[in-house]
Amino acid sequence: MTIRLHVNVDHVATVRNARGTTYPDPVFAAAVCERAGADGITAHLREDRRHIVDRDVRLLRERITTFFNLEMAPTEEMVGIALEVRPDAVTLVPERREERTTEGGLDVVRSAAELRPLCARLANAGIKVSLFIAADQAQVDGSRALGAAQVELHTGEYCHARAPSRVTELGRLRLAAEHAAKMGLEVAAGHGLTRHNVADVAAIDALVEVNIGHAIIADALFGGLDAAVRDMRTALERGAGMRAIPPREQER
Predict the structure, then answer these.
(1) Are 67 and 33 in contact (CB under 8 A)?
(2) Does the pLDDT value for residue 251 go beyond 60?
(3) How many Cα atoms within 13 Å fall on the side-chain side of residue 221?
(4) 104 by DSSP, 3-state: which?
(5) What does the DSSP 8-state code read for residue 3?
(6) DSSP state of 136
(7) Candidates 6, 11, 34, 44; catalytic one
C-alpha cells in the first residue's frame, strides 16, 4: 500500500523570512516536491505570519497540481481565508504565538462548541476537514462528532520518546488509528517524523497519509530537495511493507 506523502513547505518560507528576501520561494519548492513524487503540499498559515504569508497561500492554490492542505488555527479570520482560497483540505490545529512549532493536538472534546460551526462552514464549502489531535479515543470520537473527514494524529510523543517508551507511544498511535478507521475517518499522522523514525508509523495498517516538513527541508540542505522527498518516500514504502508483519514482530 502506498501512503500519501504531503510535504510541508513552511520552513522554506522560514529561511526566506529570516533575511526578508524573496528567496527561497516555498511555491517553487512545492513544485520541486511534486515533481519528486509528493502526493500533496501542506502549508501552515499562522496568525503571526512567521513563515507562510497570505500571498504564498494564494500562489500555492494557483500552482499546486496535486493536493493542497492548508493548516490553520480554528479562528474566524483563518476560516474566512480558507473559504476565499478554497484549498483541497483544511487541517485545524492548536496555535500559541510563543510556541516554536505546534506542540500538541486540538482538544476537540472541550472545544466542540467553538469548532462545530467552523467545521460545518468548511465542509459545506466542499473543503475536506481534518483535525490535528492526540492519539486518544475520546478525541477521535469527538472529531467524528464534529463531522471531520480525517484526523491527523500527533506523533510528537512517539518521535521524542526513547525505548521502551517509544513502543508504548507507537501502540497508542496504532490503537487510535484503528479506532478512527472503524469510525469511518481517514487517518493521517504528523509532527517530528523523519526518514529514520517514520517506517514504524507507516506500518500502521489504518494510516493513509503523513504530513512532513522540517525533516525533509533539513535533509535537503545536504542532498537537495528532490532527493529528500524521494528518500522519505522510500522510508514510507519500507514501513508500508511491514504491514503484513504482526505488530509485536515489527517492534523487535
Answers:
(1) no
(2) no
(3) 8
(4) coil
(5) P
(6) -
(7) 44
Tell me the per-residue pLDDT of 20-74, one tens digit each, with 9 for 90 and over: 999 999 999 999 999 999 999 999 999 999 999 999 999 999 999 999 999 999 9
Selecting among 11, 51, 154, 191, the annotated active-site residue is 191
Distance CA 147, CA 127 (A): 12
**Predicted local distance difference test score (pLDDT) of residue 51:** 97
Exposed, middle or buried by CB within 10 Å (0-12, 13-18, 19+), for 113? exposed
pLDDT tens readout for residues 89-146: 999 999 875 555 556 799 999 999 999 999 999 999 999 999 999 999 999 999 999 9
- CA dist 55 and 214 (Å) reads 21
Nearby residues of 251 by Cβ (< 8 Å), 6 or more positions away: 167, 170, 200
* pLDDT tens-digit map of 151-170: 999 999 999 999 899 999 99
Q: Quick one: three-class SS letters along 143-177?
A: HHHCCCCEEEEECHHHHHCCCCHHHHHHHHHHHHH
Secondary structure (3-state) at 6: strand
Q: Which among 34, 71, 152, 209 is annotated as catalytic?
A: 71
**Any catalytic annotation for residue 44?**
yes
Question: Could you give the CA distance from residue 11 to residue 27 in angstroms, rounded to a whole number?
Answer: 12
Q: Does 191 qualify as catalytic in the annotation?
A: yes
**DSSP class of 47:** T
**Domains in the chain, ordered, with CATH?**
4-250 (3.20.20.70)
What amino acid occupies position 208? V
Name the pTM for this structure: 0.94
